[in-house]
Amino acid sequence: MSDTTVLQQEIAVEQQHVDRVYTRLAELRKNASRAEKEGYQLAGVGTFGALVERDAMVFHAARRRHALDTEYEGLVFGRLDQLDGATHYVGRMGIRDDGSKPLVVDWRAPAAAAFYRATPAEPLGVIRRRMIQSSREKVTGIEDDLLDPEAAPEGMRVVGDGALLASLAKATGRGMRDIVSTIQREQDDAIRSPAGGVTIVTGGPGTGKTAVALHRAAYLLYSDRSRFAGGGILVIGPSGVFVEYIATVLPSLGEDTATLRSLGSMVPAWDSSRVDTGEVASIKGSLRMRRVLERASHDTVPGAPTELKLLYRGTLLRLTAQDLEQIRRRVLQRGARRNEVRGHGFDRVFDVLWAQAREAKLSGLPEKKEFESELADRNDFREFLKAWWPRFTPMRVLRWLADPRRLRAYANGVLSRDEITALQGSFDALETEGPTIADVALLDELDELMGRPRKPQKRSKNPFHVRDGVQEVSTFADRQAAARTQGLQREDDYREYAHIVVDESQDVSPMQWRMVGRRGAYASWTIVGDPAQTAWSGDPEELDRARERALGTRKRNSYALTTNYRNSSEIFEVAARVIRTIMPDLPLPSAVRSTGVAPADVVATVAGLPETVRELTEKQLAEVDGTIGVIMPVPRQAEVAGWVAGLPERVQVVTALEAKGMEYDAVVLVEPAQIATDPAGVRTLYVALSRATQRLTTVGTKPGWLPKD
Ligand SMILES: Nc1ncnc2c1ncn2[C@@H]1O[C@H](COP(=O)(O)OP(=O)(O)OP(=O)(O)O)[C@@H](O)[C@H]1O
């Protein structure tokens, strides 16, 4: 029998099972829709208990239906034939037949673990592991691994030659590739690491750190849903572009209870993608900024009144600049938070005025309480208080640093003269362009330093309010939407996450670790990163300290990933040559796939560069089916974007910093020499060179940037 016939026969065998699964899925979907509808019909009953029951029913049914819908594609992707004669199918979610026998085991369930962990050396009771590829309900291919040939029963067929390599050769879409069917053993170890403590995953470019982190999030939600869905999982990535790139993976894993944030969008109200220069970012990221901000948070308000004069019952009451200064200092001592002690400041003002009024022996002076309320009723007095001690927003105070005199005063003795000079001007655009990514951590720090004014408690005034997003008078569609998004709705600055995943953690600055740590007081953590890819040019010890403090004394579990699944070996060889110039002993991952195509390095004249870049990008459009990343030094983004304007959407223009974590089928890297100007720049170049799966072209006006092997 020919190989093709055997393959077709085996596909037909699997198709039978897959058909059963989809038939069952259709039934389950119908049941869920029915339950949802019945839930709504309970509306007529009208008691509070019935309403709660109805909402719970609708919510669960809608969630179930949503899960069934999102997992439709490639639902079954694996089969295990075991020594004990049993056969298990592994898939994106668990499905049972109507007699409760499993038709598919969820990939995260213990029974599926052998699918990822079994090897010929340690078959774990598995004779044959089969990967099933399909397109919607149709099985299209099979790849087998015979793990225990001696135990194989007669007639057991083995087809295909490796699902992993087949999957790696596929073109990249805009979102991250789904690896659930080809997770490798060392990755699986990290994914199933204990739920508590801190799981640390390191590995070079393309080793699947991001993929592991996201699958781990899905695994945790599966293994202890009430804990992790209840508290929520926060996933942090370096940039907005990256967060968009990974956003598709979580729902496709069947999970919708994770919150994704970039470092620039951790603080509500800001969604920053603006970057500082490396030098400025490392100063703003240093823990010493806390001292600088502390001083700012206690300073006088620009333009605030320097004295108070009040005519009270014909007598002049007066607070001099010195009096006011004394009150401010006294109230703000011992780490008091300015917004929280505002009331104390006002009390002291009343005290001094009251003492003066008594001393003046005013006739008809009322009791102190009344005296205070008389003053509080006066517009001029209220205006004074508001101007002298306003409610501070972090942004208002951060803007003070744009004033060179203030910056010098706050940073004096904390930052060096050169550092202060470097910072000057870096806060100027706050007003017009909003904060940079590094500023966001400073805003968060200021928020902590100053505290928040206490808000008067609001009563819920809407008797028809059932739950967030659901009113008693609402449509069917409202309820469906609300049921689906419930669980995603947390307060704006929620801080009680059950788990925090930090991707590209090597780029989290000390100040950012403080910001992230504030959201993780009750969390367990997964931290993934590669120190060789950091753009941080500040003090590495300070970085370690800040990270350790954020993670606290929780137990650490460490994992190292060693295979690069992204780059062709030809591409990774170029990246490796670059990083070895500064880290000669760095253990590098091995790239498993060869395309036989060597990267190209093109030299252009300054005048000819725009046209050359465009031509090279067009050439890649003809050569690969998927995405093309055009990567350049940060300051040249707008210029290079103009050169490739109007090309199809699969051409994406990103800076070398934004390229972090991203992946493209082809990369056109512009002016590599301009990126690698210092050690942090060399590490950034290493990142940029390791983004492509199939083709890499470097192009610039300065030859000789690539070290000889
Ligand atoms: N087990 C696997 N099966 C199939 N593809 C995989 C596997 N592991 C990783 N990949 C693919 O390899 C590529 C790199 O993965 P990922 O982005 O997670 O790596 P990374 O370690 O985070 O990389 P970097 O540090 O360079 O950002 C992705 O396309 C991912 O889908």
Any idea what the shape is? globular
Bound molecules: adenosine-5'-triphosphate
Number of strands: 23
Give the spatial strand order of the biggest sheet. 3-4-2-1-5-6
Query: How far apart are the first and last residues' alpha carbons, in Å?
Result: 49 Å
State the low-pLDDT regions, or none: 456-488
Work out the helicity level.
40-55%
How much of the polypeptide forms β-strand, as a percent range? 15-25%
- Please tell me the total number of domains: 5
What is the count of helical runs?
A: 28
Structural class designation: alpha/beta
Structural write-up:
The protein is α/β, with parallel strands linked by helices and 709 residues long. The chain has five domains: 3-172, no CATH class; 188-266 and 496-564, 3-Layer(aba) Sandwich (Rossmann fold); 278-289 and 400-450, no CATH class; 308-389, no CATH class; 569-574 and 585-700, Rossmann fold, CATH 3.40.50. It is built from 28 helices and 23 strands. The strands form six sheets. A six-stranded mixed β-sheet has the order 3-4-2-1-5-6, covered by helices on one side. Strands 9-8-14-15-7-16 form a six-stranded parallel β-sheet. The chain is globular, with a radius of gyration of 31 Å. The two termini are 49 Å apart. The chain binds adenosine-5'-triphosphate. Adenosine-5'-triphosphate binds next to helix 4, helix 6 and strand 17. GO terms for molecular function: 3'-5' DNA helicase activity; ATP binding; DNA binding; hydrolase activity.
